[in-house]
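Human: I wish I could look at a protein chain and see how it folds. This is the protein in question:
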Amino acid sequence: MDDALFYSCRLFAAHCNLFREPKPSWKFEMIRSLSVRVDQRTWPVPPALPQFPTSFVNGLQTHDFDIPSVLLTIGYLTTPSHVSGVSLSEFWAWVRYLHAISPDPDLRLTRPFSELDAHQKTILSDDFGMGVPMSWLLEKLQLGPIADGRYFVERLAATAGAETQRPSKKGPRKTPDFVARDGHGVWHVIECKGTQSGSDYRDRQLGGYNPQTGAIAQKNTIRFPPGHTGQRLGCGLQLGVEGSANASSLRIVDPPVEDDDFVVRESDLDRAADAIERAIGARALRLAGFQAASMTMSAPAGPKPTSQPLKGKKDETRKAFVAEKVRRADAELDQRTSFERFDANKQRFRGRIVKLDLPVPIVVNERLIRSVMIRNGISEKFIRNLRGATMAADMLGGADLGIHEQSRRTYLEAERYRARLSIGSLFVSEIHFAEKNAGR
């Protein structure tokens, strides 16, 4: 085993908490409450836009979160739209974080997980800082497709020549975490923060005004044309610890925007739709196990989402690279019947079914659970008609991928021993706490 593979396996095992002495099983409650404060004062005064959403309630409220649904959201959102190889986020969040939630009725971390080393602690805070607010926003804004902000900006800039400067991975020029479109075709820009360092630190993460910092600066990078612009949100999650006087809380703000580095013009909207649909299509294919098809979907014109036509022999090399990607994608799609088949939402899906043994058993509704089953699938009807050449066609954006009508709404469902994340009829991700063959 080479050093890189050994390190990857060791990291995965550490994430699954395998190096700790197992503890006795404990009762796992599916629902946790959380204080959510929406600060309407940060929204513009009418008639200025965006208007305060009718689905939001100003001030402090309590919201009940289904924890398996939050974990599915974390696993989905932390899987990149474009990446080569296998991403650990495709599996480990579901296993590790089941043991991070304390038995308290409100959302808190167990003390061992609050005492992780700084790097692991930051990863956990970031993951929950995305999963919790996005679970809340899926319902409140009725979001459909959700794309990583960086992928969206890079892909759209490559196809539309939008008015932009190259984004950075961190700092004031960092792209927002997510760009989302709702069922009405309105675009939303969302920045998420998570911390275990207290509400004061969380509020500083959300940003200051002179100069602009934090979420205020980081979400100033995308502007959509009038009539298509929705919410521009900063979401900050403070995570409390069991036995502590400081409870967890989520704060939602809409800080003012002064400058926009990335302007999406009216003429760019079709290409913007292509970018976000490629983002969710590639992520769905990857999670379902179609790695080659995912790479062709996310980067149709070359090795990167930003790849464009070149000149001379360099373009011949690029074309050959694309042709090989198309060949590999078609070969994989032709073998789709070798992937697991299952039914959900009265539809048939192809993908992966994985049973994962828990490092420590948990008790769910009086049943001792030693393992969970994860099902990730993409619509069999969709992949039956999908071809590599279609995904690689029209490198300037706007290829007919057949995704739009199947992805108008992303939603979460929870039952007694199961949670499900669905992207319309395109993709489904499930976690089962049940007998060995449940749901097969």
About this structure: Residues 17-432 form one domain. The chain has one domain: 17-432. The CA atoms of residues 356 and 403 lie 31 Å apart. The longest strand covers residues 347-364.
